[in-house]
Amino acid sequence: MPYVNIKITREGGVTAEQKARLISGVTDLLREVLNKNPATTIVVIDEVETDNWGIGGESVSVRRRRGQ
Amino acid sequence: MPYVNIKITREGGVTAEQKARLISGVTDLLREVLNKNPATTIVVIDEVETDNWGIGGESVSVRRRRGQ
Amino acid sequence: MPYVNIKITREGGVTAEQKARLISGVTDLLREVLNKNPATTIVVIDEVETDNWGIGGESVSVRRRRGQ
Amino acid sequence: MPYVNIKITREGGVTAEQKARLISGVTDLLREVLNKNPATTIVVIDEVETDNWGIGGESVSVRRRRGQ
Amino acid sequence: MPYVNIKITREGGVTAEQKARLISGVTDLLREVLNKNPATTIVVIDEVETDNWGIGGESVSVRRRRGQ
Amino acid sequence: MPYVNIKITREGGVTAEQKARLISGVTDLLREVLNKNPATTIVVIDEVETDNWGIGGESVSVRRRRGQ
Fold first, then answer.
1. Is the distance from CB of A61 to CB of A50 less than 8 angstroms?
2. Residues 6 or more apart in contact with residue F40 via CB below 8 angstroms
3. N or C, which terminus of chain A has less Cβ within 10 Å?
4. Chain A neighbours among C 30-49 (CB < 8 Å)?
5. Would residue E38 show up in a list of annotated catalytic residues for this protein?
6. In what order do the strands lie in the sheet with D58-59?
7. Could you give the angle at the alpha carbon of E24 between the alpha carbons of E23 and E25, nearest 5°?
8. Angle CA(E11)–CA(F7)–CA(C55) in degrees, nearest 5?
9. C9: closest CA among A4, F43, D26, E48?
10. What is the pTM of this model?
């Protein structure tokens, strides 16, 4: 019955297929490493605007404009 | 001064009235069980897209298409 | 399949019975208001040291020493 | 390598410049107080609809309509 | 620069080696699926007491005593 | 009424006084930048074991043993 929260920036058009791979990949990992039951493993993906994500003291928006 | 975070899938048109019932219900529960002060009890409801919520190794979108 | 996180200060000796009432109370509330399935409703309670919880710009430890 | 999550209500038009000040301010604080490396300090800002934020047992939407 | 939070119950003696496999597994998954940079991918594992984790309206402690 | 969660590794003996500076610093920042009321600003600090914190695909425990 694990709960996993994945936070990523909302950019580059993450597809439903890619999200599905994250969900199945994390669920498999928890079964393999800790024998956790997939039926009650919950995965929640949060996509965060680049203005709202900071690293290195500045927003990802600012970094992207500089080409980082 | 508790903090409560409720995460649900964004589907079926949850109304402001239903959200208000969740907020008052949780706040009452914390007052009744632990004598917590409602004035500083915070409740945050997150509605998550069905593509972004996984259970059983697959997204809720996929489950809904199968009728689950 | 909701996920609920309840954060409270670790003080006053919250009992397993009180935690059980929080768990059943929140699960019932989500079933009543939104028809959510209790079988996949997860509730996680975090108890936080009073040094680590701030409100009004100061820690709960400091407030408790003042009698608040 | 700290991780900081700031949750605020989505109202009043918070600007990218204000978010940038939150990000740099929190990152500076962690460097000053705990000598944490800004390069791996992550800050995520969540803006929450006023219907979805409760305090005092009612939503912020209801409070705002009363002028609070 | 993703942030991943994994919550599991504290039981059965999860080892440092198993936690390391969760950390490397999730980091690899985000690189493979979304080309995320491992250097700034953060993974935080929370182990939660079984009294503090609820599913199906009751605590995991109660379920374990029944043999579930 | 913001809610702020600060996650750091549990190492180096963070003192109550340092935590108090984080709490007051973040609360001041939210008042200065967004005019948020300190009376209902909540700050929660989580200290995470170094085995349970990953960055760059490995735990902080492993990095510390290498001198990083």
1. yes
2. B40, B42, C55, D55, F1
3. C
4. 40, 42, 44
5. no
6. D58-59, D53-55, B42-48, B3-9, C3-9, C42-48, E53-55, E58-59
7. 95
8. 110
9. F43
10. 0.97
Q: Please give the mean pLDDT across all residues of chain D.
A: 97
Rounded to the nearest angstrom, the minimum Cα separation between E28 and chain F is 7
Which residues of D are the active-site residues?
A: 2
Interface test with C, best of F8, F41, F44 (most C CBs within 10 A): F44
Q: How far apart are CA C37 and CA F2, in angstroms?
A: 31
What are B4's two structure tokens?
Answer: 């409560």
**Set of chain F residues whose Cβ sits within 8 Å of the Cβ of B3:** 3, 42, 44
- Token pair recorded at residue F30: 């939210």
Q: Is C26 on the interface with E (CB under 8 A)?
A: yes
Identify the residue whose tokens are 């993450």.
A14
How many C-beta atoms lie closer than 10 Å to residue D21's C-beta?
Answer: 15
Per-residue pLDDT of chain C (68 residues; tens, 9 = 90+): 899 999 999 999 999 999 999 999 999 999 999 999 999 999 999 999 999 999 999 999 999 999 98
Q: What number does CATH give the domain A3-65? A: 3.30.429.10
Give the CA radius of gyration of chain A.
15
Q: Report the residue of chain D nearest B16, measured CA to CA.
A: D51
User: Quick check: F65 pLDDT over 90?
Assistant: yes
Choose among C9, C2, C1: nearest CA to C45: C9
Site of tokens 């705002």 = D64
Overall residue count recorded for chain B in this entry: 68
Instruction: Give domain limits for chain F.
Output: 3-65
| CA distance linking residue A40 with residue A37, whole number of Å | 6
